[in-house]
TrEMBL record:
Residues 150-200 form the RNA polymerase sigma factor 70 region 4 type domain. The lineage of its organism: Bacteria, Pseudomonadati, Planctomycetota, Planctomycetia, Pirellulales. This is RNA polymerase sigma-70 factor (ECF subfamily). One of its GO terms (molecular function) is DNA binding. It comes from the Bacteria. NCBIfam families: Sig-70_plancto1, sigma70-ECF. The keyword Transcription applies. SUPFAM superfamilies: Sigma2 domain of RNA polymerase sigma factors (SSF88946), Sigma3 and sigma4 domains of RNA polymerase sigma factors (SSF88659). One of its GO terms (biological process) is DNA-templated transcription initiation. InterPro entries: RNA_pol_sigma-70_dom, RNA_pol_sigma-70_Plancto, RNA_pol_sigma70_r4_t2, RNA_pol_sigma_r2, RNA_pol_sigma_r3/r4-like, WH-like_DNA-bd_sf. Keywords: DNA-binding, Sigma factor, Transcription, Transcription regulation. The keyword Thylakoid does not apply.
Length: 210
């Protein structure tokens, strides 16, 4: 990482709160990978033909930049949660626009509360993955850096590897359920996951040394 990218998220957040526009842009950019990983599970497959994960993330980051003065927290954990809520709200609006207007039966399935709960659960699973790669306790800033490295590494995987990682570790699906989603046998899904995990380790190592 370059010098700017190595600055602690807490320092960037404090500088941004003090009005430093460059720090805010750097801080928001560091969350692109994280928000993309979450968006894969938030964005309904029936909507993806009209709105990509990248579009959803870009829209959310622009909104966060515009409304940053409304952020009332002081920690990176609170900031991460605030960004997550913005992402969920935009995902819900996408469903409202492209699905609910035509089929009202989807409204209960895609309630805002359920989407927020799903996003929080996905975040918790990502946190669990970062803990596996750290031997000792981490500070808040170190924890956020781990989350950023992990998310960026997942986004750099091939489509199949990224999908199986997201289904298993972000959505929390069993291999039987993954097999159905990916049109494979459960055994083939497990083998694909094992290869994906190995590639993820390599990608994380590369992220740490860039």
């Amino acid at each position: 990482m370059n010098e700017t990218e190595q600055r602690r998220a807490t320092q960037l957040l404090q500088l941004a709160r003090n009005g430093d526009a460059e720090s805010l842009e750097t801080l928001l950019a560091s969350y692109i990978g994280y928000l993309k990983v979450l968006s894969h599970s938030q964005l309904d497959p029936r909507v993806r033909g009209r709105l990509s994960a990248s579009d959803l993330v870009q829209e959310s980051l622009l909104e966060a930049h515009r409304d940053f003065t409304k952020f009332a927290g002081t920690t990176t954990a609170e900031f991460t949660g605030w960004l997550r809520k913005i992402l969920v709200n935009n995902a819900a609006r996408a469903v409202e626009t492209h699905l609910l207007a035509a089929k009202r039966d989807y409204r209960r399935e895609y309630s805002l509360d359920l989407l927020r709960q799903a996003a929080d659960e996905s975040h918790a699973r990502l946190n669990s993955m970062t803990a596996v790669h750290r031997r000792g306790p981490a500070s808040e800033a170190e924890h956020q850096e781990d989350l950023t490295v992990l998310s960026n590494a997942i986004e750099k995987l091939s489509t199949e590897y990224r999908e199986v990682i997201v289904l298993r570790h972000v959505e929390g699906l069993t291999f039987a359920d993954i097999a159905i989603r990916m049109n494979r046998s459960a055994g083939a899904s497990r083998m694909l996951w094992m290869r994906a995990i190995e590639k993820l380790r390599e990608a994380m190592s590369n992220e740490n040394h860039e």
